Amino acid sequence: MPSPYDGLPPTAYWKFAVADRAPLDPGALYVPRFAITRRQRIVTAGSCFAQAIGRALKQCGFRIIDAEPLPDVVPDALAQDHGYRLYSARYGNIYTAAQLLQLYDEACGRLSPADPVWQKAGRFYDAQRPGLDPDGLPSPEDVLRHRAHHLTRVKEAFESADLFVFTFGLTEAWVHRTSGTVYPTAPGTIAGTYDPDTYAFKNFDVIEVLDAFRSFVKRLRRVNRRVRFLITVSPVPLTATASGQHVEVATAYSKAVLRAACGRLYAEDDRIDYFPSYELITSTNNRGVYFEANKRSVTASGVAQAMKLFLDAHKIEALAPTTAEDDDDLRCEEALLEQFAR
Amino acid sequence: MKNLLFIGNSHLAAVRAAWQAVPGYEAEFFGAPQRAWLRMTHLPGNAFGLSNENEAGFARQRKITEEANGKAAVCLSGRDVIVLVGGMSAAEEVAAVLATCDIPGIRQTGAATLLSPELFAKICAALAQGVAPLPGWHHRTDARVLMLPSAASADTCLGSTNAAFQPWHRLAANPTGALAGFAAYDAALGQMLKGLGIDYLAQAPQTRTTAGLTAGALLAEGGGVTKGQEQRRGDHSHMNPTYGAACVGQILGWLSSQTQY
After folding, report:
1. A216 pLDDT exceeds 70?
2. Helix, strand or coil for residue A265?
3. What pLDDT is recorded for position A64?
4. How close does chain B come to A121, measured CA to CA in Å?
């Protein structure tokens, strides 16, 4: 009997696929499971690395849904400081699958998060996205009004998507002890007050991550039967851990859980594809060059390399830059000369 | 006799057309097409205008400026008031924000985006910063500086299918609160300019429609949509002497409110 390893493609062997690969060559890491085109309506969500993916997809001409748009005249820095232009709606970073499920359930009226409004220095913040109004809002009623509007936009975006791109970021979260409500940040970090009798640290395991994401997929497909999913794992390490472990050990655990969950989701659902941005960025073949000096943030070249891998795999060409028209000059001259010549 | 200097781009034409001799004031006008206006700078000898650098491809703009004024730069010395006219407007940008967003207390139309008043104020401040006059106009001690922005587009732009006017189409379809939104922007711009030692006269309310557009009757002859060319931008921004008269009225009102003038 020949060995089961005989006759496998070069990508199956570390020597050919990695050791002999030129530095920074992404190799054939990604083979798409289904086609993704510029005609599809795409929702992006997830951890902060998902912002980079969404931005890159948009620059490549993909139809990224922006359910809470601001016109181009608003400077990017100002818009993004307030949560606009980051994702398909103004939900900020969604680090965990549990938070994603909770958001959609809330948008559908199936649950109301506990402690929805946090306070700081006399201003009020949405506990589910406390960083999105850096100065807070004047009253709890304002927060709730903005949240109610946001949820209608989230529901519409999710339910109209052809493709849902989600980047799994973390397993660690803070939850409300009695209700199980998940928060994107620890209370007391941006706003709110940390009360250990009310809030607890939670480190989701692989079963919990799978259950949450499966539930989300199932509920969304009830109303959006055509939606497919492209899932990724953020290569960005934890900025801090509350697990009691070394942050590097905690990061390895978190990423392993998320990667395992993605593997299982890919295996069981042929309408879910996995894009290996985690593997691309963290590959030893790159010698760490896709990380900034803090060894955590992904460089622009890393994001660009990930997008190149994505576009090449889907055989999509980058867009050529466009030029603006300028036909006002003549009229300006006429208006001036006509009056000043008198 | 007080000396007034009006400097501006092609929007200055309407003001000049409406200006009549006013006892106690002498006025000089110095105008340039937009492309030349954008290149003008403060020059040695307390002058403002085009420098003598021979810039390739710019001869036409210089020639027009010289034909219109008899010179390419104007002396700023001996002026009591310098009035900057034209440009320096973010009306189109504000229209885009108002057409896209609801803002509690200002505008409620069922828009996709609900903008907090606090963020709208920051956007207005950012847009105002984007139209700040050159540093040479800030905190002048030799003359008061007064700013009149370009008029908003005339409502004739609603006859154009050009994408540039889509915000105005949306705003005109439901103008609820539009003028309050523009007023908030004008307040932000006025405050920013005040900090630079510059006075500001917002576009006269009687010249605007409820959507914030300039009334079509105030558009200069030759402007508007050309039949069969609705997809082009056309000219909806240059106003006629009637509009200029409204500006002159504002300027005279401002002058009379200044005790030293």
Report:
1. yes
2. helix
3. 96
4. 16
